[in-house]
Design a protein that fits this description.
Radius of gyration of chain A: 68 Å
Distance between the termini of chain B: 44 Å
Oligomer: heterodimer
Shape of chain A: rod-shaped
Number of strands of chain B: 10
Number of strands of chain A: 22
Largest sheet of chain B: 5 strands, mixed
Order of helices and strands of chain B: HEHHEHEHEEEHEHEHEEHHHHH
Shape of chain B: globular
Low-confidence stretches of chain B: 14-20
Largest interface: A-B, 37 and 30 residues
Strand content of chain A: 15-25%
Mean pLDDT of chain B: 89
Strand content of chain B: 15-25%
Radius of gyration of chain B: 21 Å
Largest sheet of chain A: 7 strands, antiparallel
Helix content of chain A: 40-55%
Structural class of chain B: alpha/beta
Strand order of the largest sheet of chain B: 2-1-3-10-4
Helix content of chain B: 40-55%
Number of helices of chain B: 13
Chain lengths: ~650, ~325
């Protein structure tokens, strides 16, 4: 089975086979074309040689015959033989020359015998007998026969067109006519015509004896393009090369027929007429007359070498391609096979089976490299996963511890509201939203006697477990230091001193510590670097408690903290918070700010403490709109009733 | 074949052999040249029983360069003869009792041909050797030569174009349907030939017609023979390949060079000459106009000894 269409092996063999085939095609075609030209030249040369060899052979035979009337003319011109001698000479000529069918000596009117208008002894062969006759039939009137009239007019020897000789031999023949002259007073006077007749049968058998490959043949055309010989005897005398061209509608045949008439040589292609298949014809003129020899070569025979070459090239090309396809497909399949195993292994690893079995490959090539990389990747992956498991377990543990720390922290701040349901003079609400699991903010409130309420808000710098521990320490310190009659400044001083001891981590806390005398409605507060708190009266008047009494606690012991007293009214709301409120950020990094907080404060006079807290918290959440909370948010509202 | 059919055939054969042959009038028709498509109509008429249908048993006698059709007719070796119109009028004016019974050709087919490209106008023929047939047919040529006051040398030739091809003569008179095409088929292209169609020079004198001797046959016989001949020609023109086969047979019997395209050309051209598209007369009719034209040419050459009238020369068939 061959490879599937989308496989690497298929594509590789497609590309390689296409490219190699193209190259092979170019090489083979070039080779074929070059060889073809060489072979064509050779075939043309061969055709030329065959034709010229035969033309020379026939020429030699015709030329030998053509000498006979010349010699005879000399004899007559010089010796003026008598009638008997003339007949004797003719008999000798006809008897001794196989190719000569008949011979005549035709005189001009009254020029040999002054009593005779016609005088022309004629000797010819028939049925192996030699017949002597005289062409003196008035109906025949030899002066007007082509064999006499044309050479007489031209005053030169002429080979006649093929004709059927009705008067003499009753065969198709050609006559070679040579004029001869009577010496008269030093001048030469035209005296008559000497002829030899050559039966076309004889000439035809001579031409037919030429072997041209298997089925090729030769033919002879006359001065006017008439067939003198041709294997198809129907053509002889009847057809000219031009009438064939007309009958078979071959203008090309007419064209090279004309070249034959002009005595040119040529090599042309021809289809039809005399041969069933495409053939080539070489033609060349005779030198002894103005005839032409044409030799027809069937292309299949003439170009046998070329056709064999083409066949060999095609077979080689096909076998080569098939071999190439199998080789490339085989090799690429073998090379690609490990990749399939890798693909399977990678899929298994991807699904979590990290110990998937990898193919065993020993080779040092790219696939071997890939194999080594795969092994390494598998090893590293296993290590990594092992680490990850460990880390995750540790993190889980820490998380759970953090959750516990958070729980402890949240447990440290009072969470039961309302905290003092039995008291009618105060309403209090607070909340703490830690940014991380464990926050650094704190709030607290408690009574130190029947009428003094301690409230405080703090913010440890940093977050997480250290901050919350620091906060726990701070809260515990406040609870322990706070006693009846002690001022807020004094408490803050003591806490600052305690925190500074062993504070290697350099943590610190801002703190707003207040004591509210519910009966007198006085407020005493100390701010250690904390945000200003607000007093909102029942009429909506907002007072900012701007006083700061020192820096954040835990770092420096520069000078004692002081405190500020403030006279509150019934209906006032005291709002404490950490910077998580005024520095809450939205997703674009804008801060919530005091202005927006103060706008919210305008709305709180009719509300109770819890409602006021929730209004502000909702507004902060609305502002932050999904942005991650960056700091703990702590808010406490104390309402005096 | 069953017995009844056999009987019918036997009776038919008996009838034909006893009565049929006896009824046929024997006619010897001399045609004015050797076998070729020029006479295809007559061969078709005999072969296809057209003459027989009209009651004739026709034998064709071909003339040759040495024996003309008119000689055969006047020597009573033929009953009818085909010949050129001018030849016939000339003979009639010499008191030979010839009558035209059918004028087949309606147009002149004679054309002078030369390979000499310097000869483009009739005047250029001055001093040239012109080949003419020894057997005649030269009256129109001579009128043409006289019309242009040419001094030419006539060379008599028997029947081939070879003297012309070998360059023994400058110009040759040819028939458009015959020698002209032979020259083309000897490898000379049309554009290498300059031609003078006599018809273009005021000598559109038709040629082939059928003649007999006065008072030899009755009106009925002549009419039947002419109608048979016209029908025979129509058949030949309608069945050219068949007619060419008959021509081939006749030519080969005389050992003549036959080639099909040449004979086909000849038959096609005869069709043009016998049935010109612009001819007013029906086929076979000799018009007064054509007679007068031929007569004028002959008078000019003093070939008219005694006057000949159209009416006495042309026997109107029906």
């Amino acid at each position: 089975m061959g490879p599937k269409k989308n496989t690497f092996a298929f594509r590789l063999s497609l590309y390689v086979v296409s490219a190699v085939s193209l190259i092979a095609l170019i090489i083979f075609t070039s080779f074929y074309l070059i060889s073809r030209n060489i072979l064509l030249d050779m075939a043309a040369e061969n055709a030329k040689n065959i034709t010229e060899k035969n033309v020379n052979k026939i020429d030699a035979i015709i030329g030998k015959s053509a000498k006979i009337p010349y010699n005879l003319a000399t004899i007559i011109e010089n010796n003026r033989p008598d009638k008997n001698e003339l007949v004797q000479i003719l008999q000798d000529i006809v008897a001794k020359n196989d190719e000569i069918y008949g011979s005549a000596i035709a005189f001009e009117p009254f020029s040999y015998d002054e009593n005779k208008y016609f005088y022309s002894p004629y000797v010819y062969k028939t049925n192996n007998q030699i017949i002597v006759s005289d062409l003196n039939d008035p109906d025949y009137e030899y002066f007007y026969q082509d064999w006499y009239q044309i050479p007489a007019h031209l005053q030169e020897p002429v080979w006649s067109e093929p004709y059927y000789d009705e008067g003499g031999g009753n065969i198709i023949m050609t006559t070679y006519s040579v004029p001869f002259y009577k010496p008269q007073d030093g001048e030469k006077e035209f005296w008559g015509i000497i002829t030899i007749d050559i039966a076309l049968d004889w000439l035809d058998s001579l031409v037919s004896s030429i072997d041209i490959y298997e089925t090729g043949f030769a033919f002879v055309t006359s001065y006017a393009g008439t067939f003198v010989t041709h294997p198809n005897n129907e053509f002889i005398m009847n057809h000219t090369i031009f009438s064939l061209a007309e009958e078979y509608k071959l203008p090309k045949l007419r064209e090279f027929g004309r070249k034959m008439l002009e005595g040119k040589s040529g090599f042309e292609s021809l289809y039809g007429v005399t041969i069933e298949e495409t053939s080539r014809i070489y033609y060349t003129p005779f030198s002894s007359n103005n005839w032409s020899l044409g030799v027809v070569f069937p292309e299949s025979e003439l170009y046998a070498d070329l056709n064999n070459l083409a066949l060999i090239l095609i077979v080689l090309g096909i076998f080569g391609n098939v071999f190439l396809i199998f080789t490339v497909t085989g090799v690429s399949s073998k090379l690609v096979k490990p990749l399939k195993s890798f693909a399977l292994a990678a899929r298994e690893i991807g699904s979590g089976k990290f110990d998937a079995k990898l193919p065993k490959i020993e080779s040092k090539d790219e696939v071997g490299e890939l194999n080594r990389s795969f092994h390494k990747m598998q090893f590293e992956l296993n290590n990594y996963i092992e680490n990850l498991k460990q880390t995750t377990a540790e993190k889980e543990k820490m998380q759970s511890e953090l959750r516990i720390a958070h729980q402890i922290q949240m447990d440290m701040v009072p969470k039961i509201f309302p905290p003092f349901p039995e008291r009618e003079d105060v309403d209090l609400y607070a909340f703490l939203e830690p940014a991380t699991e464990v926050g650094g903010d704190l709030y607290d409130f408690f009574f130190i006697d029947d009428q003094k309420l301690v409230v405080l808000v703090g913010d440890v710098a940093g977050k997480g477990v250290p901050a919350s521990l620091f906060m726990a320490v701070t809260r515990t310190l406040i609870r322990s230091k706070m006693s009846k009659g002690i001022s807020t400044a004094k408490v803050v001083d003591q806490i600052n001193s305690d925190l500074m001891q062993n504070n290697d981590s350099q943590l610190f806390v801002t703190l707003l510590l207040c004591i509210i005398d519910l009966k007198e409605k006085t407020l005493e507060y100390t701010s250690g670097g904390h945000n200003p708190a607000y007093i909102v009266s029942k009429d909506g008047e907002i007072t900012t408690l701007k006083d700061r009494h020192g820096m954040a606690l835990g770092l420096f012991d520069l000078k004692p903290y002081s405190s500020t007293n403030y006279q509150m009214e019934q209906g006032d709301k005291f709002i404490l918070y950490t910077d998580g409120v005024n520095e809450a950020m939205d997703i674009n990094g804008n801060v919530y700010d005091y202005e927006r907080l103060e706008n919210m404060l305008d709305k709180i006079p009719p509300l109770n403490a819890k409602e006021s807290s929730e209004l502000i918290l909702d507004d902060i959440k609305k502002f932050a709109e999904g942005a991650e909370q960056s700091d703990d948010i702590t808010l406490m509202v104390v309402a005096l009733k | 074949m069953n017995h009844r059919n056999l009987l019918v055939v036997l009776i038919a054969i008996l009838l034909v052999s006893t009565f049929g042959q006896n009824d046929l009038t024997k006619i010897r028709l001399a045609v004015h040249w050797l076998p070729q498509a020029q006479f295809a109509g007559y061969y078709s008429g005999i072969e296809n029983g057209i003459y027989e249908k009209y009651g004739f048993d026709v034998e064709i006698i071909h003339s040759s360069p040495n024996v003309t059709a008119q000689e055969l007719l006047l020597d009573e070796k033929a009953d009818f003869a085909s010949m050129f119109l001018t030849t016939a009028i000339s003979l009639r004016s010499n008191n030979e009792p010839l009558i035209n019974v059918c004028q087949l050709s309606q147009r002149s087919a004679q054309v002078l041909v030369t390979r000499d490209t310097t000869i483009t106008e009739p005047e250029d023929l001055n001093g040239k050797k012109i080949g003419v047939w020894r057997s005649g047919f030269d009256e129109v040529l001579k009128s043409f030569v006289d019309k242009y006051n040419l001094d030419v040398e006539y060379v008599l030739i028997s029947s081939t174009i070879n003297l012309f091809l070998f360059g023994g003569i400058d110009v040759m008179i040819t028939m458009w349907y015959n020698e002209y095409h032979s020259i083309i088929n000897a490898g000379i292209n049309k554009d290498e030939l300059n031609t003078f169609f006599f018809a273009d020079y005021g000598f559109d004198i038709p040629e082939d017609g059928i003649y007999t001797v006065e008072n030899k046959f009755g009106k009925e016989t002549i009419t039947k023979f002419v109608n048979a001949t016209l029908e025979a020609w129509d058949y030949a023109f309608a069945h050219k390949d068949e007619a060419i086969k008959l021509v081939e047979r006749e030519m080969k019997a005389k050992n003549m060079a036959f080639n099909k395209p040449h004979q086909k050309w000849m038959l096609d051209r005869l069709d043009d000459l016998f049935n010109p598209s612009d001819e007013e007369n029906k086929p076979g009719v000799l018009s007064q106009k054509d007679f007068d034209a031929a007569y004028e040419v002959l008078s000019f050459h003093e070939k008219i000894n005694t006057e000949v009238s159209y009416e006495e020369f042309y026997y109107v068939f029906e």
